[in-house]
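$ fold --in a.seq
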Amino acid sequence: MTRVVVVGDLMTDAVARARYALARASDTPAIVTMHGGGSGANVASWLAVEGAEVAFIGRRGADITGRNRDMELMGYGVDARLVMDPERPTGTCVVLVTHKGERTMLSDPGANAALSPEDLPRDLFAPGTHLHLSGYTLINEGSRDAGLAALDMARRANMSISVDCASSAPLERTGAEPFLEWTSDARLLFANTDQAKVLTGRDDAEAAAKVLTAWFPQVVIKMAGEGALWYSNGRPDSVHVAAEPVDKIVDGTGAGDAFSAGFLPAWLAGKPPAEALSSGCRLAAKAIMHLGARPPF
């Protein structure tokens, strides 16, 4: 199996699940739980539990939270290459889940915002290895140089590259044109329907995927309950796979990250797109049936 190097964000997710409709300017009963998070770290964790050889490059604070996140990654089997920031805390994301299951995220990147090119271990960038870059690294101005350096190092080492679009709102603030320019060396782009619309202006997932193949040889659009589709600029038709049925959606946080981790090993092994999509949907279904964005221990 191809070794995967993930460059991205490491966070602690504080998930607040409201029991009733939010009472503005007052109190709403909720269940609050703490979990390891960060899109890049989530992908690395799911890859590791699926049996992939994976290294994660990121930055954490010199705090207990950072130490716990570091130990979690190692517990999953991830080769965690985390630089300790002496000044900034480990990143935190408050995930507010309404009584109807709608999610809103409030993110403080903390140490993630200081990831620099010097933090990238040169030994991990080698031929035969795959780079997966979290879009948050490029969207955040403080870590952008590190993301661009990782892409350049991977290109020079003849590594295959995949990029995830991160989140629609910060992607829109950054701008579609710069993001597409920065990531044009990637062989594979992951986007959900909202992110694909930001990049292309198209509401239809298949239409957006076709537009995006002007920049990327292959595109995967994650469509939540409608499954996912793959499109290549070398084929006339897209490949679509339905989402796996689940008994109950417990927490959708990190489902897209789990999908990417399910898709990548099959894709890197040269499996048919439908098989890779099915693998991604399988892991996404597993993710939404428990609390938190990481695999259950």
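$ fold --in b.seq
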Amino acid sequence: MQNLSRRSFLKSTAAASSGLLFIPGCISNSPNNRLNVAVIGVGGRGKANWSKVPRENIVAMCDVDDNRAAAGYNIFPKARKFKDFRVMFDKMAKDIDAVIISTPDHTHFAATMIAMELGMHVYVEKPLAHNIWQLRTLKKAAKYYNIVSQMGNQGHTTDGIRSIKEWYEQGHLGQVTEVHAWHGKINFGPGKYFTMPDTFPPTIDPVPDYLDWDLWQGPAKFKPFNSTYAPRSWRGYYDYGNGLLGDWSCHTLDGPFWALDLGMPHTVTAELTNPRVEHNFVADQSIVTMEFSARGSKEPVTLKWYEGPLPEMMPNNNPDWKIKKFDKSGMMMIGDKNTLVTGSRPNFGPKLAIENEAWEAFKKSPPEKTIPRTHEENPVKEWTDAIKENTLPGSNFDYSADLTEMALVGVLAQRFNTKINYDAKNMKVIDRPDLDLYIKEPTREGWSFGENL
């Protein structure tokens, strides 16, 4: 990469003291105040993201898979097309204001770091990054380069998550000491998000002519192609994804993490059924237990994450829960006054687990709404508005890096079927120096970024 600069940020004492960002003047000079946006990862989640901001100007699109990118390429025929985002940044650094990154987990960091180094605002699919060092570095870089950042966990923009935080802060749950979250059993199958290879290690398949396999792997150690890696089922392999916990915790645990101010767990234990540690592949099912210390007046919290058949895995013998049926996925915050229940995202039906008559009365006289509302389930629009309004969206990296780090400590315990005593201050697993390699993973030549920040 050339050491290019997208723009110079003008800083002032007033902007710094107010917490606002000075947004480059070149944005306001674009037609109708439209942002020049580059898209990395065009199909799948990429399409779901760029389609949410139709008024912005898509100037570049980058994807290693021509098949998945084809529809987007057809919609934006004037946008320049690339396979390698490093080349895109070299050739178009002066023409891009902001970047939407919707690639597999293991390539989030490289694309995001380059963009921020060039002064571009960044929107990144969840989970934010693939390892803990990357998260810490992205959080630091967003401040250092003074850009507007956002992670794409839709639920954080919703009324539902604000209700969770308001109900808790206004005392309707009391002291919360337990959180339970579940996502059902992983269903392996061809074409699904989790596909089991026929053998371990996976056999070598021909690389499709529409896929650049070397660029798809990016910073990860090179492996021969197998159809269970791409395009959809990479999440099951820890070299590329972070399993079900990494994929969904940024939704399902967003509510309790924000409301309870959980921070980092000090201890995490994983119990796996049919672990595949030697194959670096997800287990059939698991229970992950995270222990959090007291935070001021908030009592310690035990959080349990379940992947498996329900309700068999859960301790469904507490009469205070008053839950007659579990959804396939969801979350409970158990307080000494009431229990709050949601679906897999914080906006999926948050309610108190109380008798129907009491719940109807609660809804008729709901708690005061004290947290400003934003674009319901449109974190991309929240991000582009924040760029233009000199502010930050809710799931900016200062928040979302911490949320994701909490999850990845759990993923590390799952990955090695072990107990972890986590020293968050020093970013270390106590007495396990062998795990340092996974807190900060090695990268292939040509893919190292952020080392000098």
